[in-house]
Amino acid sequence: MDLRRRSDPGQGSGPPRYPGTFLLAFREAAAGMGWQVRRWKGVLVECVDDEGHDHLVGLENLFRRARQAQREGWPALITEFLKNVSTIDPGENLPEELAAVADRLLVRLGPPMKTLPGDASVWSQPLEDTGLAVNLVVDYPNRMAYVTEDLVENSGRPGGEWLATALDNLQARTPAEAFEVVDQDTGLRICSVADAYDSSRALLLDRLLPETSADGCFVSLPGRDSLFLLPVGPKALTQVHLLKVLAEKNYQDAPYPISDEVFWVRGGVWRRFPIRVQSERITVEPPPEFLEVLGRLSGHEGPAD
To answer: What value does the mean pLDDT take over residues 236-245?
Structure first.
């Protein structure tokens, strides 16, 4: 299926600009924690803390969160954000029993992670044939810790049951307005809770967006804090390449990168949706399971090219 490009949000937009008051608030918060700003890199800023540890901080989600607060509160908000960045330590202080922290279990979606410091094996479940994996984490106010295979085994319950609990917890902490429509014409949406679990919410689309369950959604998740989607429909068929452009553009600069691909998600099942954007030509190779949907939405009884 070849589509002609109608628009391309990845070209000509340049790096995002943030108000000087926001950048000053960031410097104030960083200095208050003993951090030094090394270099501004568009949507990212390189910092070093007072112990010499490097941190790469993404500004887009932080600024999105700051816009919802009064400007005089920005230094405190940014300080709290930076504390979370600096205190995340995989495997640190895991509980002895999962049942004791069942209400804190959440799910992380990303590239496979096999071991933690100390060679502890992380509990992991592959996500279809996407090359991605699902992990369980214990979420604390200022940090998170990955759940190990030993911790799951010692619980006496299968990992799938704990995953169901984690998904329920994530749904409960997802606000109703989590998916913001950023383009009325295409229906493009972005998940912008900015709590480090936005990409993981792609695992809950049938629950959070039940109106899309029939044909599913096109999804891109370039980073941990980035989730773009298009509900499948006639308009989306001509605009799905925009997700590929967004994925490739944001994946390169994401502090916690996940994927530069586009996926079709329906009924909890994930499938790759390969797209190539070359000059003025867009080539899409739908998975075989999508051909029925494609034919129906495009007005053809059979597969379309």
So the answer is: 90
